């Protein structure tokens, strides 16, 4: 009799990828065929397990979390960017998490929020030219990125350095996109994007290391992330200590800007595709904010905008893939997962499971009306992951998203230049299609 592991269903991925040439369609087809069961994805020489059912997600992210490490062929190509801190695993990760977690609690983020609101308002003012088409992702990045840089580095970074960091990060997180969908190609085999990646890392390090050296040389009273990291790591001196601070800063910076920028890029095509939902969002912003700059006291009074953002993160979760390596053999949903195997979780697929979501592909913010959570499996919705690695930035994003959306809508109405709803692009995050443009028209 075949044992459970050999009886595990294998679903095609690589052939679908080459046939359709639209990776997200290959992913959706694999998810539909799995329908919540644990399956193996046939990626040619490599067959990771795909885990989407909420019970199974809970086992990997929480119940037996210590068995599933963030390492392996998906993570290795990004190691020079992410380093050995908060986005690694094991002891180094635990130490970084202990230092960083207190900086991003809801209370602490609330304290930063007024500052964020002010910087955001200035940036919306200075970067948007009404009536002029712009690239949606670049436009969002031009606002999100400097906001994050200011929160992380305080006044310790010049505008020139911000302008060097922004494109370097963009290259660093996108250059390895091909390796994310073809993770079995060895690092020694050159692929498009490798050289650009190395150049981007160099540019990032040339900005970040001098900021650390400067911060170490001063009395650090500041509340920005560099000052706090330097204070927390006074006993980790020399090049090794600098490296630890660099790794956390760079990993946090990458994790916060790429995810927020792509999430906020989806706002505009989604509003355009759903005029009746857009009308409710516009109405709420008009009633609550009016002509004033958006402040944090407006946020609790815009519940529909909050529901809209939650639904946006259901259908377009920036962190669409979470790869793990199993340390010991485990059984998930009756399937034996051997030690050393790669396990792939995807909120994109869990959030579209028909067993847990009524009309799963319909965009409907009402799902997140008060009381909705209680009717849902706790692990049916996890755009920010869960368990010990749960996103450190979720409170920050909960503040950043309505500030940006309402900040734009109080002055402008969007028009996206696209006839049909866009197909997501599987990159380091779930990006809208390349070249998506929009125009913001002044309201009055
Ligand atoms: C739309 C916005 C965001 C989304 C969808 C998102 C999603 C996620 C997900 C899915 C993870 C788990 C990764 C894994 O375990 O493999 C994660 C971790 C993380 N996120 Fe976010 N994130 C967002 C914004 C932010 C922001 C603004 C920050 C900045 C503070 C941030 C910092 C982090 C960090 C440091 C981790 C690693 C936590 C750990 O492993 O202990 N994220 N995020």
Automatic annotation (TrEMBL):
Entry keyword set: Heme, Iron, Metal-binding, Monooxygenase, Oxidoreductase
Keyword Iron attached: yes
Pfam families, sorted: p450 (PF00067)
InterPro entries reported for this sequence: Cyt_P450, Cyt_P450_E_grp-I, Cyt_P450_sf, Cytochrome_P450_Monoox
Keyword Isomerase: no
Superkingdom as given in the UniProt entry: Bacteria
Family from the record: Belongs to the cytochrome P450 family.
Database matches in PANTHER family: BIFUNCTIONAL ALBAFLAVENONE MONOOXYGENASE_TERPENE SYNTHASE, CYTOCHROME P450 FAMILY 4
Name of the molecule in the record: Cytochrome P450
Organism annotation: Nonomuraea spiralis
